[in-house]
Amino acid sequence: MAGNKESLFRSQDMTLTQLYVANEIGREVVSALGELGVMQFRDLNPETTAFQRTFTQEIRRLDNVERQLNYFRTQIEKNEIGMRPIYEFSNTMAAPSATEIDELADRSQSLEQRIQSLNDSYETLKRRETELTEWRWVLREAGGFFDRARGQTEEIRQSIDSNDDAPLLRDVEQQPNGGTEGGQQQSFSVMNIGFVAGVIPRDRMGAFERILWRTLRGNLYMNQSEIPDPIVDPEKNESVNKNVFVIFAHGKEIIAKIRKISESLGASIYNVDENSEMRRDQIHEVNSRLQDLSNVLGNTKRTLDAELTQIGRSLAAWLIVIKKEKSVYQTLNRFSYDPARKTLVAEAWCPTNTLGMIKSKLQDVNDHAGLSVPTIVNQIKTSKTPPTYNKTNKFTLGFQTIIDAYGTAKYTEVNPGLPTIVTFPFLFAVMFGDFGHGAIMALAAAAMIYWEKPLQRGKQDELFGMAFYGRYIMLMMGIYSMYTGLIYCDAFSKELSLFPSMWEWDFPDNYNSSSGQTITAKRVEGYTYPFGMDWRWHDTENDLLFSNSYKMKLSIIMGWAHMTYSLCLSYINARHFKSKIDIFGNFIPGMIFFQSIFGYLVFTIIYKWSIDWYAIGESPPGLLNMLIYMFLQPGNIPDGEQLYPGQGFIQVVLVLAAVVQVPIMLFLKPFYLRWEHNKARAQGYRGIGETSHVSALDDDDDADGQQPNGRPSFADSDMDGGAMITQDIGGEGGEHEEFEFGEVMIHQVIHTIASYLRLWALSLAHQQLSVVLWEMTLDNAFSFTGPLGIFAIFVFFTVWFALTIAVLVVMEGTSAMLHSLRLHWVEAMSKHFVGEGIAFEPFSFRIMLEDEMTELK
Questions:
Q1: Which of 57, 174, 446, 703 sits a CA distance of 20 to 30 A from 686?
Q2: Degrees, nearest 5: CA angle 596-602-606
Q3: What is the pLDDT averaged over residues 32-48?
Q4: Phi, psi for residue 706 in degrees, rounded to 5
């Protein structure tokens, strides 16, 4: 096949190439091809595990470097240090040199040790600071606890010694009712009462109290108080609210139990002296150590931040370099090694028109390396199915993505992405038609296009990211909506009086507007409104009745045009793949059937519009009744319903033509395929393996086009691809799959369904919703006068504009877009789209790094 020019009409011609690369420059060759991004490499070692491949050691080394860089990134985010965005680096697509990789590996190793040392030191000092801070709070609060406890020593001893039913906790604010002066001065050690002091997270305090009560059965005295300032957890870098507690109990075993319970719940136990003078000395010592520790912490933090800041200036570029280098070695692992020639052998698909550029790039690599032996590029003739590659740009990418989301087109079949550039926004606009709403959408899209680069480099949430990705689709939808809004004469539900109206109001004598009298309009003789709907139809009693009929007929015409060109594309595909059965079994009967019914209906709509029925003294016939009688009573035209002379005979012929096509569409292709299937079986091609429909581009694992049993494949012949043969003949195979006759018939029936009346329904819904919103907001605001009127207009305008954006533009726009998407996927593409292609996934630095660059913004 002759090479076709670059276009969206068909996918690019692809060539399977074989590369013989000198082992010394394998890495440089793959890096250069990664910069080009036009080759999809095949895996020539499918049976080899990842650990047995040639360049596994290099990939492990790069994995370690990548781990170190991700560690730096985690530390930078943890310490809230800014990282230089990737867009500030120049030439990020250039392949790194081997020297750069070695230097980066050594540097990241030393930096990791440095950062880990500083980080460990900082975290150790931070933990020590937290411990001293908590200890200081315990010492401060413990003084009040001990003073209150000394006043209750006799009561505590009696409470503990008397019975097991002592109360759990004594209120810390409760003062003792009695006691002697000597009892207040008694030491706890003399009374054999011990205590545990510490700090516990506030959210665990309730559980702590309950566990102590149930374990010790109330044999303790407890005081607690809240620490007003949150304590920073050095490990998680989070603020935690904590409480200070002091627990008094009798006996060493009980004190040991309390310590174990406290530590199990995450409490920190601190040493506190019961002597007030000793506690004062402890507080002074803690404050002094905290001051020294704060100075050391500050210096360590500044040093750590300085190191991370320095790393952050280059970290994004380092991550990109390692990502590219890993992909190079992963690609090299797809190559096979030829020990006789001491070369690497690769196979790759590439667009045919890029072969010259690939050879030139490989020659540059050879010249730079100083090798006399060139890199050999051979073109392989194969029966394998080439991948589908549709070249896109910023404008066409979004539309092509719509098609690819449905399925990948078969190699060189007609690409629906090209007509979708026009039909998708236009069908959307038929449902969304409003000049004002379309202008808002177009302006929003134009703003995203104008500030494309700064928006692309900034952070985007999911919703805005989707809108930004489809900014050119939004622009086209907005422009087409403005166009259909002019046809509907709608702008925010109000009329657009662009031209003089063809209707004049016929006011009677002594007309009073408050009387509720109905006024009719008369047409201006010899004048027709030049474009779209006449603006005088707005706000009339029969506006909805007229626009309902008008938009319903327009939707039928749009659906007919959309499906007709889709059927024509099926003919182009059948001609291209030389499939006569698709022409005679699908296209011709499908086109006759479709035009006999829907084409005739469109003809009658336009014919009825072109006749001035009142000028010839006849009432216009109803097309719905005509269509019903066309099938129920062929040839019978009711009185007053004749559209043109000879209508009955023509309708009989069209109905007969449509009826005849039904069995042809349902049975011709299935029976033909069954006949070919039986013919292939009779010739001895039936085996144990799986049956499949073999075309001239069938994917086969054997490069020479041979079947596993040695028979030549039909893929090398000039057949049109209609034969049913067996793959894996003589192999182990699976269960035999029978020919599904019914499945093919159902497939034929599905392709005759249409549902374009949604264009009419959504257009009316959008218009009426816009009218209701106007009447409930601004229309009410205009009824106020004076200063109140100014305030009301301001308030109601704000509400109206916000609801217009949120409901009529965003929500209604999303609904119309989804319906337009369905019409393309289900109604149009089902007429011609094969969708059995394999997506072209080239080894490209640019594609590979798109996601990474998004994270490194």
A1: 703
A2: 135
A3: 91
A4: -95, 145
Give the DSSP letter string of 452-514.
Answer: HHHHHHS---HHHHHHHHTHHHHHHHHHHHHHHHHHHT-BTTB----S--SEEE-PPTT--GG
DSSP track, 93-122: TSPPPHHHHHHHHHHHHHHHHHHHHHHHHH
Burial profile 702-717: b = 16 or more Cβ within 10 angstroms, e = fewer? eeebebeeeeebbbee
| Burial class of residue 525, CB neighbours in 10 A (0-12, 13-18, 19+) | exposed
Q: How many residues does the chain have?
A: 857
Q: Which H helix or E strand runs over 751?
A: none
Joined together, the tokens standing for residue 734 give: 């699976």
Tokens standing for 382?
């194969």
357 near 35, Cβ under 8 Å? no
Give dist(CA 239, CA 268) in Å, integer.
16
From residue 26, how far is each of 344, 359, 540, 550, 743 by CA, in Å?
Answer: 7, 15, 77, 67, 50
Residue 108 near residue 65, CB atoms below 8 Å: yes
Which DSSP category does 346 fall into? E
DSSP class of residue 633? Answer: S
Residue with tokens 């809240």: 226
Task: Mention every residue, 6+ apart, whose C-beta is less than 8 A from residue 628.
Answer: none
User: Which of 91-95, 223-227, 251-255 bottoms out in mean pLDDT, i.e. has the lowest?
Assistant: 91-95
Burial of 156: CB neighbours in 10 Å, binned 0-12, 13-18, 19+: buried
Tell me the per-residue pLDDT of 258-303, one tens digit each, with 9 for 90 and over: 889 888 888 888 888 777 788 788 888 888 998 988 899 889 989 9
DSSP state of 378: E
Tokens at residue 287, please? Answer: 């404050």
Burial of 801 (0-12, 13-18, 19+ CB in 10 A): middle
Q: Which amino acid is at 408?
A: T
Token readout for 90 is 């120049």
329-346: per-residue pLDDT in tens?
Answer: 999 999 998 888 788 999
Q: What is the phi/psi pair of residue 831, to 5°?
A: -80, -25
* Cα 426 from Cα 445, distance rounded (Å): 16
**Nearest residue to 698 (alpha-carbon basis) of 415, 409, 411, 351:** 411
Helices (H) and strands (E) in the chain, counts: 30, 15
Concatenated DSSP letters for 145-204? HHHHHHTTHHHHHHHHHH-S---S---TTPPPS---HHHHT--TTTTTEEEEEEEEEGGG
Task: Report pLDDT digits (tens) over 501-518.
Answer: 888 887 777 777 666 677
Structure tokens given for 560: 């007919």
The residue assigned the tokens 């006691």 is 179
| Tokens of residue 716, six digits | 């090398």
602 in Cβ contact with 556 (< 8 Å): yes
| Cα 297 from Cα 119, distance rounded (Å) | 11
Flag whether pLDDT at 143 surpasses 90. Answer: no
Looking up tokens 């990664």 gives 34
What's the rounded Cα separation, in Å, for the pair 281 and 288? 11
Q: Quick count: other Cβ atoms within 10 Å of Cβ 140?
A: 15
pTM of the model: 0.74
pLDDT for position 479 = 96
User: What does the alpha-carbon distance between residue 709 and residue 727 come to, in Å, rounded to a whole number?
Assistant: 10
Q: Smallest Cα–Cα separation from 670: which of 741, 776, 736? A: 741
Task: For residue 475, count CB atoms less than 10 angstroms from its CB and return exposed for 0-12, middle for 13-18, buried for 19 or more.
Answer: buried
Distance CA 134, CA 233 (A): 11
**Orientation of helix 543-576 relative to helix 758-776, angle to 10°:** 140
For residues 70 and 656, give the distance between their C-alpha atoms in angstroms, rounded to a whole number. Answer: 72
For residues 301 and 112, give the distance between their C-alpha atoms in angstroms, rounded to a whole number: 16
Whole-Å CA distances, 307 to 70, 217, 304: 15, 55, 5
